[in-house]
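Researcher: Can you fold this with zinc ion in place?
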Amino acid sequence: MNSGFPNRNAIATRKILDEVAIALEKHGANTKTVHAIKTRWSVNRISEAAEKLNVPLVLLGFLRSWGNTLADEEVLEGLHDWNQKAIPDHDITCPNCKNHLVLNSPMDTIFMARRTCPHCGEHLVIDDAPRAA
Ligand SMILES: [Zn+2]
């Protein structure tokens, strides 16, 4: 069986999975998803989940290159830097399911953004500064 993983027990892989979990959690991944990422999902499955969470392409690029075109060290460094970057978090509440969401945007204010709520799957359009409901 080839999960696309070099070796899940390798220290580098564990560190990468931790960074992946942090990054995806920031983009709204729930606890169950985060656990699955750390314990049993393949790189492909993780990339699919990241795509559904509408993570930025740069982040998706690191995931897709993992075990492929990038060395573990490069992926780890990239993900770590990504997680450390001072990207402002935008706290919003899903108008449909009332779950709390954190959106990352390089802008101070999200004027227009489209997201899919990871909790209820509803499409959200944020067309003004995010407000708490
Ligand atoms: Zn929702």
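Model: Folded with zinc ion in place. Residues 11-84 form one domain.
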